[in-house]
Amino acid sequence: MSPESTGQNEHNLTVYRRGFRTWRGNRPFWAGLFTMLGGAPIAYFPYADLHLGNMTLAMSTTAGAGSLIIGVLLITLGLTMWFHSIVRVFAGVAAILLALISIPVANIGGFVIGFLLALIGGALSISWAPGEPAADEADPQDAPLSLDKRQPESGYASEGALHGAAVPQQPAGDHDAASGYDGGTHRAG
């Protein structure tokens, strides 16, 4: 190895950080994190004891098992959002419903903290959409094929336009009978 090579001398922490950033960007990371953080107080508070000097204040309720189940399900849904992002909409709806159910069951939704975190996490999961690959990374083999195999005529888009390049278009109301261009997005046959 020579000292001029740049790829070999990166610090391991930088490599892990970039790998984590890539992993985080391909899934609803923040939705899963908020959902898991919302499940923790919902599951914890019914079993917690607060000690004030010689006095012990127990916050357990009759529905302690219900709040434990809700908290564990919210944590499971958060992990599902991370590792199976294809079901993110289902996981988000389920997280919102469990957060709403936690209000009467689990000490006002983990004293509102768990309720709000799970609600935000579910909403983020529903609204998250996977990103499109960059244009330079797109495979030209994946480009949509045209049904018309003729070469582009005048008035039609160039070959570069079929692969995502910007092409100026005529105004929508214009109609050019010679080229078959009708101002829409369809090619005349």
UniProtKB/TrEMBL annotation:
Q: What is the protein name stated in its UniProt record?
A: Integral membrane protein
Location of region: Disordered: 133-189
Question: Taxonomically, what lineage is the organism?
Answer: Bacteria, Bacillati, Actinomycetota, Actinomycetes, Kitasatosporales
- Which species is this UniProt entry from? Streptomyces arboris
Segments crossing the lipid bilayer: 28-45, 57-79, 86-105
Report any Pfam family annotated for this entry.
DUF6114
Signal peptide stretch:
none
Q: Which domain of life is it from?
A: Bacteria
Q: Which InterPro entries match?
A: DUF6114
Q: Which UniProt keywords apply?
A: Membrane, Transmembrane, Transmembrane helix
